[in-house]
Amino acid sequence: MNLKTKITVGFLAMLLLLLSIGGYAYYSLRQLDRSSRDVLKANLYSVNLGLRMLRSLDQLARQPLADTAGTAAFTAALREEARNVTEPGEQQVVDDLQNLTQQLRQHQQQAQRAVAAGQTSPLGISAEPYRLGGLTYQMMALNTDALNRKTEAANQRADQANRNLLIFATLAVLLALALVGSVPEAAVQPLRRLTAALDHATERNFSASIPQESHDEFGQVARAFNRMLGQLREYRTSTAAELITERNRAASIVNTLDEGLLLLDESRHILLANPVLCELLGMPAEKLLGRPAATVRLENDLFQAMLKPLDAPNRENAVAEAPLLHIAQRGEEAFYRLAVQDLVSFNEATEKTEFVGQIITLRNVSDFKKLDQVKSNFLATVSHELKTPLSSINLNTKLLQDERLPADERQRITGYIRQETQRLQRMVAELLDVSRLDAGAGIQLDVQPTNLADVVNFATSTVQPQLDDKQLRLELHRSVQLPEARADVEKTTWVLINLLANAIRYSPVGAALAVRVAVAGAFVQVSVQDRGPGIAAEHHDKIFQRFAQLPDKTGYRGGSGLGLSIAREFITTQGGRLWVESELGSGSTFHFTLPVVA
């Protein structure tokens, strides 16, 4: 039974009880009214008639035979009484009264006839009035007794009606109390359980379900609420898992950033500091998190430098104009650029955007700084390298303009101009190759089976004038059965000439150079060995980077720093490898390999 039916049944029961009490009270009142009306009509009316009859008899008692008016009044009252007989024995008394009244009338008629006849007989005293009085009293006594009896019965019925009404009223009060105690409780108790469950739910406790003890409306609410709790538990589980995943992902991103990251709240308390920043500050995260930034800046000079632009009147300009932070990191110079970003959030309650904190980052720009320095050095070097041959060409050109110059001297000067021109062409070609690689154009290869012995012969003959100029000896070592390699002849020759030119440049006068060509597994390996100053192990990879230059003991900085970088690109693109083996003071050996033709 649902709650609505329970409440309806309760109110119907109360209504039925009230109707019953009202109906019974109405019935009892009607009965009492009917009884009183019967008493008034039957008994009390007869008593009143008896009184009238007694008053008539009083007149007759003085002149019983002469007073015909009294007899007429008595007869009229007796006639009314005859029509109002209600009690047992009353009819007999009325009959006796009528008989005596008839006798009294006869005596009066005889007396009247005697007077009319002129007889002088006196009207004596008759006994009928006295007998009539006795019978009248008897009739009145019957009605008086009946009146008393009926009054007592009416009183008893009234008392019984009062008792019954009291019983009905008591039952009504008890039923009302039962309804007052049960119906509100039946409505409030489930609401209390629902309120308690809602309180637990607001505290993120979704396990406090409502017992389903009925099938009424509250039972339906309980089932719906329990289903909602189940869905909330599932949603919380899935949401918690997603939040944990997202938090871990965000933490991983923050922790793996190569930038120092600091998060401040609106009151400049430290909320987050990633490992990079902690390492730069030299302070663990435990000494940073939750502390005011104003306190930490007093303990750390770098932190003070990070917060200094925030206090400037024009913060954006101060941050933009802030110098790079120079930090010694792992024994090397590192440069960091400061960046500040305000955090804002939209407050739905106030419908306004509010400031909630700041993110301060330190970005490592050391590579860009070094690249900028390298490019500056490169421009200076290229300018120097271009200036030297141009100056030589300009000077030799002026010498050629002298007509007095002998022919053999003109020939020698022309050779110098040709060498310097080739040097310029080589430098320009390197710059063009680098520009093509930076533009993503790649390297166009013409790979074909190639005998590297021929490449070696061509390259060595090309640099022979340079060898002769420095009085260097060239030693060639080639395998007898040398397989063909898959190579681009032009670019491979360029690489070998570049390696030989570097070896000549760094070799002392009169030293020996060695070129070896041999099989190394599935590759053909070419090696160029010099007797120069050598290269430290920590610079073996650096020399293959663009614009890299290593000064020697004499301070010579070499060429543009692009040759070895381009050479490695050429060899790697052909499927080979280019590397160096060297030690300081022991010379250097450059190796490159190319795959054998299958």
Automatic annotation (TrEMBL):
HAMP domain mapped to chain residues: 185-237
Keywords assigned: ATP-binding, Coiled coil, Kinase, Membrane, Nucleotide-binding, Phosphoprotein, Transferase, Transmembrane, Transmembrane helix, Two-component regulatory system
Location of the Histidine kinase domain: 381-598
InterPro entries: BphY/WalK/GraS-like (IPR050351), HAMP_dom (IPR003660), HATPase_C_sf (IPR036890), HATPase_dom (IPR003594), His_kinase_dom (IPR005467), HisK_dim/P_dom (IPR003661), HisK_dim/P_sf (IPR036097), PAS (IPR000014)
Primary location group: membrane
Coiled coil ranges: 90-117
Entry EC number(s): 2.7.13.3
Transmembrane segments: 6-27, 165-183
Subcellular location: Membrane
Catalyses which reaction(s): ATP + protein L-histidine = ADP + protein N-phospho-L-histidine
Membrane association type: Multi-pass membrane protein
Span of domain PAS: 246-291
NCBIfam families per record: sensory_box
Protein name: histidine kinase
Species the sequence originates in: Hymenobacter negativus
